[in-house]
Design goal:
With 332 residues, this protein is α+β, with helices and mostly antiparallel strands. It contains 5 helices and 22 strands. Helices cover 14% and strands 23% of the residues. A hairpin with a 5-residue loop joins strand 18 (278-282) and strand 19. Residues 177-194 have a biased composition (Gly residues).
Length: 332
């Protein structure tokens, strides 16, 4: 019996060692491993499990300290120190918007763990006071069927770590969360509704440096689940003719005219994806490519707008990649 136990243990140990080494142990390049390496350091926005940005303090939000939830009541314009005019709820708690959402049509991309840190504000019974145009109020249906308040089309949230009225700890978290201005824009960026659609489009155009800093983001696709987008909102894909264990690359030469290898990112610039899944691999031409759970990832030239997934299930070989590095499901 002891001998059998030793044999079982030995087999298990070998299996663990093979799994650990597999990610970077390919002989695809003349016996030289592509050496998947961590990108940058191991820090991420916030700390601990707060994958959507921790703000002050970092870490997971303790139970019982999840901030105020429920309807906004009569919203008002408050003067937030360092920001200026921002929208607060009837009890003075700061309200927020998320840059990864869309206002036309209204859509929330904050679900799951994100929604625990950024509770959606119910549309029920919302009203306004001086300084906010009632015509800007609306609602959007979330994936769970509830109605979320919108202002100028932008879904509205609270931040779980705001402990008292007037707190604005969520401002700037992840570079994508902002206190809500009276006109739907981020507070401090022209909160009043001016200039119509043209002005709104200008506000949504991010400087190149800011877009680059965004890195990767996990977003909810209503049909495919949680997908990964790059800083420009392009869906990332994996290829069945590649291999993660051992790592091999099957998309070379003319293939890369259509499927562009994604560039590596710093682990600190990922939102909604476990940092330990982020790596990089050296391609045959010597360039470096982003990997997620050891799978090389690509963008598709056929995707024209942010959030497009036209490359999914292409020829039964290309699939949008999930936040876990898996293939997104195929919808008939």
């Amino acid at each position: 019996m002891k001998k059998m136990r030793r044999e079982i243990f030995a087999v298990s140990a070998v299996a663990v060692l093979m799994m650990t080494a597999a990610c970077g142990s390919s002989d695809n390049y003349g016996g030289k491993a592509p050496a998947v390496q961590p990108v940058g350091d191991s820090k991420q926005a916030g700390t601990g499990g707060d994958i959507y940005g921790g703000g002050a303090g970092g870490g997971a939000v303790p139970a019982g300290q999840l901030g105020k939830t429920g309807p906004a009541g009569q919203m008002k314009v408050s003067d937030i120190q360092g920001l200026g005019a921002a929208v607060t709820d009837s009890e003075g708690f700061t309200l927020y918007r998320f840059d990864k959402d869309t206002p036309k049509p209204p859509k929330s991309n904050c679900e799951g763990d994100c929604a625990a840190t950024w509770p959606a504000v119910s549309a029920e019974g919302a009203s306004v006071s001086a300084g906010i145009d009632a015509a800007l109020l609306g609602s959007v249906e979330r994936s769970d069927g509830t109605k979320q308040l919108t202002v100028a089309g932008w879904p509205v949230y609270r931040y779980a770590k705001d402990a008292k009225a007037g707190d604005a700890l969520g401002e700037g978290v992840g570079g994508t969360w902002h206190a809500l201005g009276p006109g739907g824009k981020p507070a401090g960026k022209g909160g009043a509704a001016e200039g119509g659609e043209k002005e709104e489009k200008k506000e949504e155009e991010k400087p190149a440096a800011e877009a680059k800093a965004s890195g990767l983001t996990a977003v909810q696709n209503p049909e495919l689940g949680t997908l990964v987008e790059d800083a420009e909102g392009k869906t990332l894909y994996r290829f069945d003719k590649d291999s993660a264990w051992p790592m091999k690359i099957g998309c070379v030469d003319a293939c890369t005219d259509t499927w562009k290898p994604a560039k590596p990112v710093d682990k600190a610039n990922v939102s909604g994806i476990a940092p330990e899944l982020i790596g990089k691999v050296k391609r045959p031409d010597g360039s470096e490519q982003l990997t997620i759970d050891c799978w090389p990832v690509y963008t598709f030239t056929g995707d024209k707008e942010p959030g497009d997934t036209t490359g999914h299930n292409n020829k039964g070989l290309w699939f949008a990649i999930t936040d876990k590095g898996k293939k997104a499901k195929v919808v008939n």
